[in-house]
Amino acid sequence: MSAGPRRRTVPTDLAALAAGVSEATIRKWASRGKLTRHGRPGRAEYDLDEVCDLVNGRA
After folding, report:
1. Four-residue CA torsion sign, 31, 56, 7, 42
2. Which segments of the chain have a pLDDT < 50?
3. Partner residues linked to 44 by β-bridges
């Protein structure tokens, strides 16, 4: 049984760096439902492919 492709998650600071935006923007996108927040309380992480798709207009 295949679980599919593995999600590559990164913390907020690296998601912001990859997107070329501030950490506040990443948090805003997540609160508006544009990005899915993963991780546990106090440790937000974001799917790197989802961040790149959003920035490149594919989301």
Report:
1. negative
2. none
3. 39
